Amino acid sequence: MSTTSALGGVVRRREDPALVAGTGLYVDDVKRTGMLYVAFVRSPYAHATITSIDSAEARSMPGVKAIYTADDVRHLGPLPAQVPVGQVRPLLADGIVKHMGEAVAMVVAATRAQAQDAADAVFVDYEVLEPVIDLKDAASDRVKVHDGLDSNILITWTTPFGADEEAQAALADQIAEAKARDDTVTVSLEMNNQRLLPTAIEPRSVVAEWNSGYGEMTVWSSSQMISAVAGAVGKVLGIPYNQVHGIAPEVGGGFGAKLNVYPDEILVPWAAQQLGKAVKYTETRREAAVSTIQGRGWIGTATITGTRDGEVLGYELDAICDMGAYSQNFTVAIPFLGVFVGSGQYKFPTRLKLDCVTTHMQTTDAYRGAGRPEAIYYLERIMDAYSREIGMDPAAVRMKNFIPNEDFPSAISPVGFAIDTGDYGTNLQAMLDLPEYAEMKAERDRLRAEGKLAGLGLSTYMEVCGFGPSGLVDLGFSWAEYGVPSAFNGSGVVRVNPDGTANVIIGTGPSGQGHKTTWSQIVSQQTGIEMDKIRVTYGDTKEAPISIGSFGSRSAAVDGSAAFEAAGKVRDKAAKVAAHLLEASEDDIRFEDGAAHVAGSPDKSVTWEEIAKVAYQPHLLPEGMEGGMEAHAIFSPANATWPFGTMACLASVDADTGDVKILRWVNVDDCGNVINPMIVDGQIHGGVAQGIGQALFEDAIYDPEGNLLTAGLIDYPMPTAADVPNYELHRTVTPTDVNPLGVKGVGEAGTIGSAQTLVNAVVDALADLGVKHVDMPMRPKRVWQAMQDAKN
Amino acid sequence: MQVSLTVNGESVSADVEPRTLLVHFIRENLDLTGTHVGCETSYCGACTVVLDGKSVKSCTMLAVQAAGADVTTIEGLADGDQMHPIQEGFWERHGLQCGYCTPGMIMSAAGLLAENPSPSEDEIRHGIEGNLCRCTGYHNIVKAIDYAASKMRGETPAPAEWEATA
Fold first, then answer.
1. CB contacts, 8 Å: A726 with chain B
2. Which residues of B touch A250 (CB under 8 A)?
3. Can you tell me the mean pLDDT for A188-203?
4. Which of A15, A17, A284 is facing B40, going by the closest CB pair?
5. A632, exposed or middle or buried, with CB in 10 Å at 0-12, 13-18, 19+?
6. Average pLDDT of the residues in A258-278
7. Which end of chain A has a smaller Cβ tally under 10 Å, C or N?
8. pTM to 2 decimals?
9. Mean pLDDT over all residues of chain A?
10. CB A726: neighbour CB atoms within 10 A?
């Protein structure tokens, strides 16, 4: 394998030797001398007043060091929330609980088991109140979730984004006129996009250590945004940012659930300060279910109106989006991300009304895709239903309504955003031209001829990612609430050391995306330094440039571009040094295989090691040149990026049991330029599996009393290897024009395109029986019931 | 109470509470933190180790139940600096992303390949269905185990998808 990789090459991951050997460091692996352990006492009720907390017995138990309640931490204020629309969360429940699993008391003891034993011996008396669980009930304001708020509806997102009421009314009128026409059809479906548990396999974990002499707090946390955690800890505890050392070592999956600041990330450092000892908290899987954020949770009615020959004249989505009890990092901004892509790849009038309601369930926030899978789900399901209603090929209907190529770049979407680049017709046509697509169609027809139920599902999708433009995120998403406003810039430092090795220090850190490898490729390509001489580090606020983290498919597009530019600055300086040493023209210097070469003179070259040695001895440098070989770049893109693609799958349904089987799965994705195809494909694989999980299995079910019935992996089935197919991936490449790499981002695309692809396939299989829709998760019983209902 | 067993070829002995799970014994008493904990219901498989030749979930056993057993954890799989073929397969075929489920997945594969050296794709998929991965969608894990099985049989593994299409 080549040691100098150009962008676009497969390179085995540089992080893997440690991870396959079991020597990767995750937060729960951190052990400090005298370390204490935390267990939380959590509410079994969704809505109740706390009448008393009796911790006397617990305090006397072996190993117990402290038990804290709201009385001890009230002075610290609530949990900082990035978008504090709604009720912010107290660090510990203060007289009242608003969801099952809310932390009521915190026990600190010498061992994990002692802490848990003592937590079990804290007796809390509750007076149970009526919870608000049903979303329509929540929207009616029959019972208020929070006394201090005017309504359970925290905010309503509408389109066109930013338009006044008059413009919105005009849009509604335009769609109403289309509906009233004799030559149009209108199709409407109420559909559920259920609550999900993100379920990274690594539970969240936090360790904190306070050094009173240095006045320094060290916090290890399994976080996608360690700088925000460090900022929030500093803000709440009154410690300057430069005295909080945040470390996110290996992060065992995030998917948005670790894109938050949690009460434990504040309380554990606070306890470490109080007790003068290192303190650790690691959530159990059951705690992860009830107290780490959840995702999705929409019910909505999608309505589409169009002509009988497939021209869509209006699309409407009226949805209620479940925000849960408290607002945390993004909460109400998640449905807003759905607004961005609300009209998908299409050019037709689009009216969205998304009511964000608070309920007595755990907070919802970013889960892979975050608002975009929900929005695309409704759109692509109703496009499918409309195609079926008018008897047209669903691909043809989509093709007919795409934003045309002449609108790009910066096409203005019907919901009011500028899309960087797109070529939707070519992408869909690539799918239709694949032999795999024809084979799936033929196989469906063959199975049907045998009397089996089989369906072909198709969905296009659009994503918005690569956040973000500094001005855009100033709408309230800039991390200012955590004390570290960073405007979603990308950030990167490249330093070539005197021995010719290079350090690349980035502000974003991975939770499985392979940053060490990808950033090595970026810097190697820019400088010609061999990959094995490049060390990429991240997740450490002491050394990292100011930055925000890894989420929203943003890292490569934004922080990758920053590293690309920093490496470019270093290379340009090195070219001057090399030209000086080789007595050549700077314009003739080319970097390759670890050295600077003079174009046209193969015998004239100087290695990076030789260049770097000179760079740190300024008297050897060209007159006036600053010593050293290091650069920092901040990258703020002009726009977000907008990946897109098409997915198709073949599925069968067992007529007797309702069991759904995926027979084949094919994608044509377009994420712009690709740095490492192996890593990019891996992101798609995992994303599609999560969409399949939502479509077939996963469901965070609360009963009417507000108990989460699926608070463990037994009751919350995730896909296993035996449940998912091989993924046959293809791509088109439409580079973005908003960053120098031309990359758009790929972390969430698989999830955004997949769930409705499978639902469309199942409905295709059952359409002849009269089934128009099956809600997710499409477990056998529900599919079987849909078949029976259609018969009767 | 006192418990003695062999872990990665070394005799170990410790005084533990009777309720101590094998996984906590491995992680906290022996400081072998490559074995992970992802749940408390034996569903995720992140804690899988090989015990007396079979893969087991070490959160499902008490440490004292492992008395006298021969346990191999992820740290004991490689031959010095030489990766075990399963580890190599995961590296070569991008069978991991965040790496958290990986040690358990590898030890589960070790148990599978000990029982069935030539598993079909379907047998691999069912063989590891007790181990959950949230990152990879399993596609490349299946390829990684197939790679390892070929290597362990002394055969040349099938080319990677990206090599086959290059």
1. 139, 142
2. 98-100
3. 98
4. A284
5. middle
6. 98
7. C
8. 0.97
9. 96
10. 17
| Neighbour count for residue A410 (Cβ, 10 Å) | 14
Q: Is beta strand A411-412 parallel, antiparallel or unpaired with respect to A350-358?
A: unpaired
Look at chain B and count its residues. Answer: 166
Residue pair B52/B42 in contact by the 8 Å Cβ criterion: no
> Is there a contact between A26 and B90 if contact means CB atoms under 8 Å apart?
no
Backbone torsion region of residue B53, taken as left when φ is above 0, otherwise alpha when ψ lies between -120 and 50, otherwise beta: left
C-alpha to C-alpha distances, A585 to A340, A588, A600, A613, nearest whole angstrom: 49, 5, 12, 20
A22·B96 Cβ contact <8 A: no
Q: Would you call B83 and A285 a contact, using CB atoms and an 8 Å cutoff?
A: no
Alpha carbon distance A369, A733 (integer Å): 21
Total CB pairs under 8 A between chain A and B: 184
Please tell me whether residue A317 adopts helix, strand or coil conformation.
strand
Residue A10 to residues A5, A523, A556, A682, B83, Cα–Cα distance (Å): 8, 15, 16, 12, 21
Q: How many C-beta atoms surround the C-beta of residue B30 within 10 A?
A: 17
pLDDT digits (tens, 9 = 90+) for B114-158: 999 999 999 999 999 999 999 999 999 999 999 999 999 999 999
Give the C-alpha separation, A432 to A450, whole Å: 25
Going by C-alpha positions, the residue among A367, A363, A373 that lies closest to residue A323 is A363
C-beta of residue A94 within 8 angstroms of C-beta of residue A283: no
Q: Say which of A12, A112, A726 has its CB closest to residue B91.
A: A12
| Distance to chain B for A196, nearest Cα, Å | 13
Record: contact B96-A20, CB cut-off 8 A: yes
Minimal C-alpha gap between B80 and chain A (Å): 11
Note whether A252 contacts B36, CB cutoff 8 Å. Answer: yes
Of B24, B33, B97, the CB nearest to A29: B33
Give residue A300's pLDDT band: very low, low, confident or very high (50, 70, 90): very high
Contact A508, A549 (CB under 8 A): yes
Contact by Cβ (8 Å): A613, A635: no
Q: Give the separation between CA A184 and CA A379, rounded to whole angstroms.
A: 18
Handedness of CA A70, A71, A72, A78 (dihedral sign): positive
Give chain A's length. 792
Partner-chain contact B136 A682, CB within 8 Å: yes
Helix (H) or strand (E) holding A558: none
Q: What totals of helices (H) and strands (E) does chain A contain, helices first? A: 21, 28
Cα angle value A484/A486/A487 (rounded, 5°): 140
Mutate one of B47, B72, B139, B145 to test the A interface: name it (highest A CB count within 10 A).
B139
Q: Closest chain B residue to A30 measured between Cα atoms?
A: B33
Q: What is the pLDDT of residues B69-113, one digit of tens each?
A: 999 999 999 999 999 999 999 999 999 999 999 999 999 999 999
**Best of B79, B134, B143 to disrupt the A interface by mutation (most A CBs within 10 Å)?**
B134
Quick check: A358 and A278 in contact, CB under 8 A? no
CB-CB contact of A332 with A153 (8 Å): no
What is the 3 state secondary structure string of B16-57? CCCCCEHHHHHHHHCCCCCCCCCCCCCCCCCCEEEECCEEEE
| Rounded Cα distance, A403 and A417, in Å | 13
Tens of pLDDT, residue by residue over B22-72, are 999 999 999 999 999 999 899 999 999 999 999 999 999 999 999 999 999
Q: Is the peptide bond preceding residue B157 cis, with omega within 30 degrees of 0?
A: no
- Chain B's closest residue to A748, CA to CA, is B135
User: Strand runs (DSSP E) across chain B, as ranges?
Assistant: 2-7, 10-15, 48-51, 54-57, 70-72
Chain A residues with CB under 8 Å of B31 CB are 31
Query: How is residue A481 written in tokens?
Result: 């609430």
Cβ separation B34–A23 shorter than 8 A: yes
